[in-house]
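Let us work through a complete example step by step.
Step 1: write down the sequence.
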Amino acid sequence: MAVPLPDLEREIDLRLERMGFELVEAGWVGSPKRPILRIRMDLPDSVPGKGGVSVAQCAAVSRALELWLDDHPGIPERYVLEVSSPGVDRPLTRERDWVRFRGQIVRVKGKNLPGGRGNRLEGELLGLEDGDGGEVAAAILLEGGERVRIPLNRVEGAHLVYRWES
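Step 2: predict the structure and record it as tokens.
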């Protein structure tokens, strides 16, 4: 997981939106000697496994961001920029993802997940619901038919589970 960069991430998000893409996540990885700015982007209505961001689109976005990033204060003089698609196991990073991918199978990691399942569970995403006290929760239908609610503030990570066709 990339180390987040909130202020820079907002600006990258706006720039990608103007180019017709959406930011999935951005952050620093690598080491201080070889910092890597990793950007994962998507098309706003893409479905994992059925089209999505192309290599040519990633290259075009990389070129469009390079000049701006090179002049941005706070960006190291030497860094590597990686721009890619989120892949078929796309992470759910924003509330809109939990709505958009309703009906998909998701894997969720968090602490003290409902039903005493430890720190991971998998099931069909039913969407978002308002919880007690105004918290937003993901509704998930587990394989056995049990429906659970997971407050988003307890989610440490979540991603789509892609089932390859045989």
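Step 3: interpret the result. Residues 72 and 119 are 39 Å apart (CA to CA).
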